[in-house]
Amino acid sequence: MNIAIFASGTGTTLQTLIDRQAELGYHVALVVANRECQAVERAQKHHIPTLQTKDWTAIDTALANSNIQLVVLAGFLAIIPHWICEKWNKRIINIHPSLLPKYGGKGMYGIHVQEAVLAAKEQEAGCTVHYVSAEIDGGSIIAQAKVDVLPEDTPETLAQRIQEQEKILLPRVIDELAHL
After folding, report:
1. Which of these, 89, 69, 58, 76, lies nearest to 29 by C-alpha position?
2. N or C: which end of the chain has fewer CB within 10 A?
3. Is the pLDDT of residue 73 over 90?
């Protein structure tokens, strides 16, 4: 299965997906970035075609031209237009650093999520892979991984443990979807 990775940052999740593609049932065929970022450099280092744009028509065309079957949002900090969500229904997934439906939606990204989890004195946290819909973090949940919130946790330590779970969960979900 050919997948496209949408990224806006350092590309650590992208690197995990690149590293695991040979053993699992997918191929990273395209990386799309909505701004200049390290993820593009990582993709180019691995000779993966890249597209850096905010033009959704160009993105849609590139997906079709690259024979993409699944789009994976990996630290992509842009809202997907409704028409893309409809056209690619059940073919766009996202990894979110919380146990959705808790701590999702506008403003809930990166370290902000773990700050909110700790402020609420939650006993557990984690990550969620879900289908992307027009509602931010509102698509159907595919899988989750949980971690305990420890008394000594800071937003950074909690985020680090959750990111370790993301590195396991996301490739596993993509592999499962590739074999449906």
Report:
1. 69
2. C
3. yes
- Give yes or no for residue 180 having a pLDDT over 90: no
> Percent of the chain having pLDDT more than 90?
97
**pLDDT tens-place string over residues 141-170:** 999 999 999 999 999 999 999 999 999 999
Q: Are 4 and 43 in contact (CB under 8 A)?
A: no
From 96, 112, 130, 179, the catalytic residue: 96
Domains of the chain: 2-178 (3.40.50.170)
Distance CA 23, CA 126 (A): 25
pTM: 0.95
Given this model, what pLDDT does residue 77 score?
87
Return the number of other C-beta atoms located less than 10 Å from residue 6's C-beta.
26
Q: What residues contact residue 139 under an 8 Å CB cut-off, 6+ apart? A: 94, 130, 131, 132, 133
The answer to whether 40 and 33 are in contact (CB under 8 A) is: yes
169: nearest Cα among 46, 17, 12, 30: 17
Query: Would the CA dihedral through 82, 60, 178, 49 be positive or negative?
Result: negative
The predicted pLDDT at position 108 comes to 94
Residue 96, strand partner residues: 128
